[in-house]
User: Fold Peptide ABC transporter substrate-binding protein from Nocardia uniformis.
Amino acid sequence: MTALAVLAVAGCGSGRTGGGGEGGIVVGTTDKIFSLDPAAAYDNGSLLPETQVYQFLLNLPPGETTPEPDAAENCEFSAPTVYTCTLREGLKFANGNPLTSASVKFSFDRMVGINDPNGPASLLQNLDRTEATDERTVKFTLKEANDQTFPSVLTTQAGPIVDEKVFPADRVMDDNEVVNGKPFSGPYSIVNYDKNKLVEYKANPDYNGALGKPKTESISTRYYGTTENMRLDVQNGDIDVAWRSLTPSDVDSLRQNGNVSVLEGPGGELRYIVFNLDTMPGGTPEQKLAVRKAVASSVDRDALAANVYKDTYTPAYSSVPQGFPGAAEPYKDIYGAKPNKEAAAKFLSDAGVATPVELNLQYNPDHYGESSSEEYAAIKTQLEASGLFRVNLQATEWVAYQRERARDAYPLYQLGWFPDFSDPDNYLTPFFAPNNFLQNHFEVPAITAQLTAETTEPDADKRLAIIEQVQTDLARDHISMLPLLSGKQIAVAGKDVKGLQETLDASFRFRFGVLSK
Assistant:
């Protein structure tokens, strides 16, 4: 793992009514919370509160991409297929209940057992079973030996430790139930919760984990329906930090404002289109693949990056972004960097697909930033310019969007990815392994075998070769998703805010505990 570390308020309202209180910090965002229950949360909006309130066996301190002990005192492979963790002494949740190895076993058993379609259980593909061998010892038995990524998986949204006396074993818990149960053992606890409007946090005096003691006692998160209102509030000092997602025009404007600082962190965000292999156009698997290849030959990523995003994003020609070890560019090599109408038409005609092909393309106007509307209007124009497609664009707000795509409602749909950990596998296994989070019915044994091989190969050079090959095979023979753009982390803060740059690192975690003013 070390060898592959990365080089790399609904509506509005200004003022701080209900904010962080005296000496507190207010963070603004348009990223909506889907769920506070880890079993149902696999999105960046939900990761923000999870990072603050839940403890993990291992975590990523500011500036680090290698997992370090959090609730654990230490973790190690005790056998090629057994990963053993010993917990710190005296751990407890904010409600006073003890946090023991039984809590850890319950958390992972529950995650796998519920297997919610919107949750992160797909990250635990290699977990066979979890055992609590004594009050402080947990053993994970893995299906495949020498898993190079499992320690990092424990730091992801699959890894929060929940209170077995609060959470039901077999169903997802409502957010208000979660807050009322106070099952928090991370750096902060939630003390007031108005979902996707205002969330207030208070430092947890008992936390003594990898993220360190919080530097600010009170933090609030204010949720915005539009980036315009968030931009105005941060430039006027009505909030302290604006974090996800300002438009490129907002960022340009704020760079000229002397009252705020615009800070950047390593890239890793990915924007892409998913194809539902069951419901997309095409009468046979061969015809469906031809449609996907024709779409891949018709998009202009350079135009999207320059015209829509003002080069705050760069073209992505693989699911693994440039800057990660093993990143290739097979979509450029196979389909070209510019639209190729002749190649697209040939894919369709060779498969007997009549044109124009009608594409029902769904996108989300709030979760991935307001520029999504402009982005998908541009994609529609690009596809229809070929004369091969007729595109019907449809937009749905995030919470409904998540539920509907899980019910096969969308033949083609927008998603974005914010990595769980700094390893190229995190752009492969979650997308293309069985039970993957895309929920698009992609499962290919040969690809699964390649993914298993790369995650369990201890030789770094051999592992990189497998990673490069699987990217090529996916682009040439499958295209279950079409990568479009990758981008940096960008946050804006008042000049009196300290510590923000510390959390804009390659762990892709936004940690409130480092902020102060």
Notes: Residues 267-488 form a domain with the Dipeptide-binding Protein; domain 3 fold (CATH 3.10.105.10). The radius of gyration is 22 Å.
